[in-house]
Amino acid sequence: MERGRSRRGRQAEAARNDMVVLAAAREVFAAMGAQAPVSAVAERAGVGIGSLYRRYGGKDDLLRHLCLLALRQSIAAAQEALDAGDAWDGLAGYIRTAVAQGTGSLAPLAGAIETTLEMRQASRHGRDLLGLVVRRAKDAGVLRADVTPLDIAHLIELFGRLGPMSAGSAEHGIRQRLLAIALDGLRAGSGIPLPDPAPTTEHYEGRWARGLRMTTRVRPAPP
Questions:
Q1: For the whole model, what pTM was predicted?
Q2: What digits encode the pLDDT tens for the residues 183-218?
Q3: Is residue 213 part of a domain?
Q4: In the chain, count of helices (H) and strands (E)?
Q5: How many domains, the chain?
Q6: What is the CATH number for 176?
Q7: Domain-embedded: residue 175
Q8: pLDDT for the residue 7
Q9: Residue 1 domain-assigned?
Q10: In angstroms, rounded to a whole number, what is the distance separating the alpha carbons of residues 9 and 11?
Q11: Which of 103, 182, 202, 218 has the smallest count of CB within 10 Å of its CB?
């Protein structure tokens, strides 16, 4: 029994450490792009570079692990949105959560690493859930009819590219104002149709193959 509790304790500690490293990576890659050294992530996370490599392996393995963690966060946020009592609150809460996490800060990794089957499956599961969130909001008459799930995904990426921001900072305040404007633009009732074309899955996923097409290992899929 004691051994089981010890194992669960280590697993919980590893999960907490994962979140610390993920938050640090989002800040580093938002500032420095995909070429940021792992040492910068380790320094921001307050851990030794040797510890990172022992836990995650090489840089690409670390980046894939971080992308998978981010995908799982998005899935959890989408599930919470579906559980919300109000369809609009669920959708808006999902967007705010994803932006606050800095989901889009990992976008510079598109095409820089080879994706895995687990990443691709998680990505599609997350988009399926987002589709349900969007459909629920449309059925409730609170979301404009011409908005697609990929519109929401790109919006989150756009607002989250600067990474997580500290509450109370000037940048955080500005982002919250602009996000409020964007959310208002998503509401049903606008008489101005969105311009065509709508974003496609092929484009959304294809970015994650860019830069890898010279190899035989290309498997497109976004986190």
A1: 0.80
A2: 999 999 876 888 988 989 888 888 887 544 333 333
A3: no
A4: 9, 0
A5: 1
A6: 1.10.357.10
A7: yes
A8: 63
A9: no
A10: 5
A11: 202
